[in-house]
Amino acid sequence: MQKSIKVTIKGRVQGVGFRPFVFQLAHRYHIKGTVQNNMDGVTVFAEGEEKDLQSFLLSLQTEAPRLSRIDQLNVLEVDVQGFEQFSIIESERKGASSLVIPIDTAVCDDCLQEMNDPNDHRYRYPFINCTQCGPRYTIIEQLPYDRPYTSMKSFPMCERCQKEYEDPLNRRHHAQPIACPVCGPRVTLIDRHGQTLDGDAIENAKQRLLSGAIVAIKGLGGYHLACDATNEQAVQQLRTRKQRPARPLAVMAASLSVVKQMCEVDEEEERILTSPEAPIVVLKRRTTYPLAPSLAPGLKTVGVMLPYTPLHHLLLDEEHIPVLVMTSANRSGVPILYKDEQALQDLKSIADYFLVHNRPIVHPIDDSVVQIQNGNVDFLRRARGFVPDPFFTTSDVHEIAALGGQQKNVFAFGRNEQIFLGPHIGDLQNIEVVEHFQREYEHLRTWMGVEPKVVAVDMHPNYETWNIVKEWDVSVIPVQHHHAHMVSCMEDNGINSNCFGLILDGTGYGEDGHIWGFELLYGDASHYQRLGHLTYTPLPSGERCIKEPWRTAVGMLGYYLGDKGYELAAQRFPDKQYEIQILKQMMEKDIHAPKAGTCGRLFDAVSAFLHVCTHSTYDGEAAIRLAELVNEEYIYEPYPFELKEKNIIEIDLTAMWLAIAEDVKRNENIELIAGRFHQTVVSAAIEMIRKAIEKHPQYHRQMVLSGGSMHNRYLVKNLIKELQKLGFIVYTHQKVPCSDGGLALGQLIIAANRRERKSCVLEFQQK
């Protein structure tokens, strides 16, 4: 007996070959009906025998395409309509969107095989793709995802591509970016004067890279600057021209075997390197491979990715160009470059040549960056390959937005039970970045089909997000920075009940007006209690201390050790005698010397005192270089410290500074001092927690670890070990960064909780 059902499917089901997959299943099980994309996902009308329909539904969930993800599948029995065949029908563009936007993914093995086959008509074609790979988010102008609403609309399909596109049994059926050498985008090599070079653009670019040139390459989500990663002169030239003296440069290796020659690679690192998302993975370098010494000065690690576009694969080869520097082409402090005219203008003093193509990038996106920590993926930057994939929540987040922080900015939206984090925006310190924020926010808001009524912002009064939100007609909810970090990690792990949060961070505005960043909190998304922190010390000259960590060291030494501290500072920084006297007066008169108790500034101060890094040229340099000196497999003896119990527990590091100064005077091994300092941070945090649970034995022994300093592998590994000894279940971040790139997730959940409480209070008052 014939039955008819309507199947509605939500999730990542557009742009991933889902409709042809449904079509093929329908043929297998003798089903008649239709499949259609709409603003909600995919709708299927299926008619057939009951046993065939059951098999069809089972296969729908167990055999779905590798890039798809089914979040909801609803089945409704309907009247039989008498379909004569099964067909894919035109997309429905009406209604509010609840779509999951498809993500950009690395070129698949099937496409690579065709690209390398001299008999295939797409042989060596740099834009080969199918339903299982290629550009998605970066080319979409409107939803639903159909070719006329992408930047491929200006490339009419040739007869051959059209035939593949329309064939439901073909791998490229409804692959919106489908193209070939006859009808698709093309690559051109031009010089810095705008002159097009004759010949094969990719081969010409390879020859110039081999000869030491710097080439700007238009990729999937923006421009990269590339040069031979084994050519020290080329790398130094790139650093000089880009005015980036020390920031580590990411590299792209021709293959996994090249990566394994360069770096130590474990099983999980290999899995994430070769995944469809293809992020940059931070790996430990081998000293035997001839990478340019200035690639990552002072570091034992390097950020490595594999080629993720066909163009990258054609540029690199194991024999001639095994590894290229592949770094974002933006100037420091401005968004990633993605428009051709702007790139040619901005980079003409940096790049010798430009390898460009004529497929417009609609949405720029940076490369994602991860490291593996304790066997888990630790996001340093969540971007290409992951954005804008949603998270699911049990909180009511609908029509709430969160604007993130000032640094490493990422915003977030709530829609029904979904949370969407936007792309990595960067530091909101100049007009270009703020405009980039506003542009991407508006795009994603429109795509999501939401009109936020409540917006969460960091409570810091001078953050740019306050200037952005004041133009909007919304309710604004200020959120304390470290509470947002804590709740971000809670949401990342599905924790709704009260728990502890240890937040080790660089900067965050505290409720007492001081700068927090070494915090022990207890609570949930609705409230928190501050149980302990690092003693406040002055930052003489304020934010300047971030770029000049020696100033932070002077502040801590002067505060903890008085005149002896200033003497020590003068000995360690002999060229700063005059400035030290000025800083001393600033601290004594409390002029432009805000009080701070942060893990990030503590790392900076020790790094500067040890002469590891007295001036930071990129975010976190002093702390990163100090961490690189530590052997993660070794347990060091901590320096002495003291806990003071006032209203809340305070960590006093006077004894530690005296001991470090003594070790430096004795010319003790700098790696040992760095290791002992790391263990002191661990031990002080654990003792603070031990005291807190003595005072509050009824509190749940669940602990979330968050804040930018939790990227430090030694700290996390040893904190987890010691916390487990105290009976804690310990949680770290899973899907968002522990640093400010994950802040918006916590802000959103806190805002949702406050809105819910407010509505409950109103309801109670009305009763």
Automatic annotation (TrEMBL):
The active site is at residues 19, 37. InterPro entries: Acylphosphatase-like_dom, Acylphosphatase-like_dom_sf, Acylphosphatase_CS, Carbamoyltrans_HypF-like, Carbamoyltransferase_HypF, DHBP_synth_RibB-like_a/b_dom, HypF_C, HypF_C_2. Belongs to the acylphosphatase family. Belongs to the carbamoyltransferase HypF family. Keywords: Hydrolase, Ligase, Metal-binding, Zinc, Zinc-finger. PANTHER family: CARBAMOYLTRANSFERASE (PTHR42959), CARBAMOYLTRANSFERASE HYPF (PTHR42959:SF1). Pathway: Protein modification; [NiFe] hydrogenase maturation. GO terms for biological process: protein maturation. Signal peptide: none annotated. The keyword Membrane does not apply. The keyword Ligase applies. It is an enzyme of class 6 (ligase). Its EC number is 6.2.-.-. It comes from the Bacteria. Residues 4-90 form the Acylphosphatase-like domain. This is Carbamoyltransferase. It comes from Thermolongibacillus altinsuensis. Residues 199-385 form the YrdC-like domain. Pfam families: Acylphosphatase, HypF_C, HypF_C_2, Sua5_yciO_yrdC, zf-HYPF. It catalyses: C-terminal L-cysteinyl-[HypE protein] + carbamoyl phosphate + ATP + H2O = C-terminal S-carboxamide-L-cysteinyl-[HypE protein] + AMP + phosphate + diphosphate + H(+); an acyl phosphate + H2O = a carboxylate + phosphate + H(+). One of its GO terms (molecular function) is acylphosphatase activity.
